[in-house]
Design brief:
Number of helices of chain A: 6
Number of helices of chain B: 22
Strand content of chain B: under 5%
Oligomer: heterodimer
Shape of chain A: elongated
Low-confidence stretches of chain B: none
Distance between the termini of chain A: 69 Å
Largest sheet of chain A: none
Strand content of chain A: under 5%
Low-confidence stretches of chain A: none
Number of strands of chain A: 0
Largest sheet of chain B: 2 strands, antiparallel
């Protein structure tokens, strides 16, 4: 009899948790993060400037955030989304991150691979023969092609 | 299979804890969303006569919090806010300013919140008679101008400037504050200071633009510098009525300001040791910055001295106005993608170089003062003395232009070096003129 009540209590507790979690997820626009919509990246406003300037950038017509910032194959793409999503959520919730925000080296590498994925034919000659790890960083010169901010 | 009692109790407790945490997260997300919806709440009505920054702080607590912080005493290598006397640090200044009130008291300048109390305390005001003109920039003076001028700020400005300082001081209660740069109705940046409106109009006229009014003609980004230029500039008190005047009609460069003073036949004081009519430069930050690469690139004063900062989901400009070297991450790195230590090293290299050149220029100027005092062995002719005094005036203006300017050359490094190079040349030419 007691176990029956405990079952009810546990079921209730888990149900409330499940329902509240689902509500929080939807309220926080959780599903948008599975999409390819650049607006999702500015949900929390931190990347508002990057989003606004991307709208005016040369890459706007051909590449959205994910095309440059996440790998193109399925599992690495969602792993990158999950890892960065976790980091961003924790930092934004706890409000402890340095400004201006900067890309981490691991993400800069992925970004560069994506530059080359599209621009391979153009850059083949300058990439060929470079010592591994010594290749030119596209963004060193072309820092404004994706987005600003530049005030 | 039967689940044990403790497993069920544990599962319930874990679910409760998870629910607790999820609710905290939900509230946090909700807070951030609400912050982004509305940036401020009007708790009090602000008017043109609301000079007390605490009243503005009720509507804009984040900005007010920053404004109040502008009383700190953290130093950079060449700047700070302590009330120490610069004359003790560099005895050459006593020679250079001999006979001028600045030889009595030359303190490190402090933040906006101190602008009125420092003015009350300086020996320059205590020992010498000063006019009400000082209040133009040391206080939230606009209501007093309106009241005295019967609504006409230019008339009120002239009347208050002509008063003795103590009399004008009774008309004001606050240091430089919110209403001096912000329109109380909509928080737009705006120019209030009559001397700036007149001086900048004259400058623009020299550029071929008639009837320039920054309040209707300047862009928002220009206003983010011009509001500062209301006061952080070179000025002098014109005529017996001591009208604060910005010497800009020929331009903002040092030689253009110099030729303005030549034409006006103006000297701030007569040097006590040499008898030369000389100019005391004030703090030409706007003028020097205007010659530098940041101005050319469209970077405003506020971009570096009041960079944007984030509070929760809100972005505010940092009203803790201070040296960018105390806030390098926000001030520099938004444009310069380098580590903060690199940016500090760049800025301090510029300042170190300027300081060394400035020191040489001060030496040269003191040498010239000594030479004029001593005269030449057989006695200098009056023509020789006149030439040397004129060269002292030219060298003095240039040394002081960089020394009184508050960036140790950073606002325009090459221009500062050019000015100091000319100063050294004029001072040495002055010595030669006495041979």
């Amino acid at each position: 009899m007691i176990l029956g009540r405990l079952h009810l209590l546990a079921g209730l507790a888990i149900g409330v948790m499940g329902g509240l979690s689902l509500f929080t997820f939807i309220y926080a626009q959780g599903f948008s993060y599975f999409s390819n919509d650049p607006a999702a990246c500015a949900n929390c406003h931190i990347m508002r400037e990057q989003f606004d300037s991307w709208l005016k950038s040369s890459h706007h017509a051909r590449a959205a955030c994910n095309d440059c910032h996440t790998p193109h194959s399925l599992i690495p793409k969602y792993w990158t989304k999950a890892e960065n999503g976790w980091n961003h959520s924790v930092k934004f919730t706890l409000q402890n991150f340095p400004e201006p925000i900067r890309i981490r080296p691991v993400n800069a590498r992925k970004l560069r691979e994506n530059c080359i994925a599209c621009h391979l034919e153009l850059t083949g000659d300058i990439l060929h023969g470079a010592t591994p790890g010594q290749q030119a960083d596209c963004l060193h010169c072309h820092s404004g092609v994706g987005h600003g901010p530049r005030r | 299979m039967r689940t044990s009692r403790w497993t069920l109790i544990g599962a319930s407790a874990a679910a409760a804890l998870a629910t607790f945490l999820v609710t905290m997260l939900l509230i946090n997300v909700s807070d951030r969303k609400r912050e982004a919806l509305r940036t401020h709440f009007d708790l009090v009505t602000l008017t043109e006569d609301t000079v007390d920054p605490a009243e503005w702080g009720k509507n804009f607590p984040r900005q007010y919090d920053g404004y109040r912080r502008a009383v700190d005493t953290e130093r950079t290598r060449y700047g700070g806010s302590e009330a120490f006397n610069r004359l003790d640090l560099d005895p050459r200044l006593k020679r250079i300013f001999a006979g001028h009130p600045f030889s009595l008291d030359y303190r490190e300048e402090r933040g906006h919140a101190y602008s009125l109390s420092d003015q009350d305390e300086t020996e320059r005001v205590k020992q010498r008679k000063q006019p009400g003109s000082c209040l133009h920039c040391h206080s939230s003076v606009m209501p007093a101008y309106r009241a005295q001028g019967g609504g006409d700020i230019f008339k009120g400005f002239e009347l208050v400037s002509a008063m003795p300082f103590a009399e004008g001081r009774k008309l004001v209660s606050q240091p430089v504050s919110c209403v001096d740069c912000h329109d109380p109705a909509n928080m737009q940046l705006r120019i209030t200071r009559p001397a700036f409106l007149l001086g900048f109009r004259a400058y623009k006229l020299g550029q071929g633009v008639k009837d320039y009014d920054p309040n209707t003609m300047a862009t928002r980004q220009e206003m983010r510098s011009l509001v500062c230029a209301q006061c952080h500039v070179e000025y002098y008190f014109a005529g017996d009525r001591r009208i604060v005047t910005y010497p800009w009609s020929k331009g903002l460069k040092v030689e253009e300001i110099e030729s303005y003073y030549e034409e006006a036949g103006f000297s701030d004081w007569t040097h006590a040791e040499t008898g030369a009519g000389v100019i005391k430069v004030q703090h030409p930050e706007f003028e020097l910055w205007s010659q530098g690469i940041h101005a050319r690139s469209g970077v405003a004063c506020a971009d570096c001295h009041m960079p944007y900062m984030r509070e929760g989901a809100l972005k505010v400009s940092d009203h803790h106005v201070r040296s960018p070297l105390l806030n390098i991450e926000r001030a520099c790195l938004a444009c310069h993608p380098f580590p903060a230590a690199e940016m500090r090293a760049r800025a301090e290299l510029i300042q170190d170089r300027t300081a060394r050149l400035l020191s040489r220029a001060e030496d040269a100027l003191v040498d010239l003062i000594n030479a004029i005092q001593r005269g030449q062995p057989g006695g200098s002719s009056s023509a020789q003395l006149a030439a040397a005094r004129k060269l002292q005036r030219q060298a003095q203006l240039r040394v002081d232009f960089v020394n009184a300017e508050n960036s140790m050359g950073f606002h325009a490094p090459q221009e500062a070096a050019r000015i100091l190079g000319e100063a050294i040349d004029f001072a040495r030419q002055g010595q030669l003129a006495l041979r």
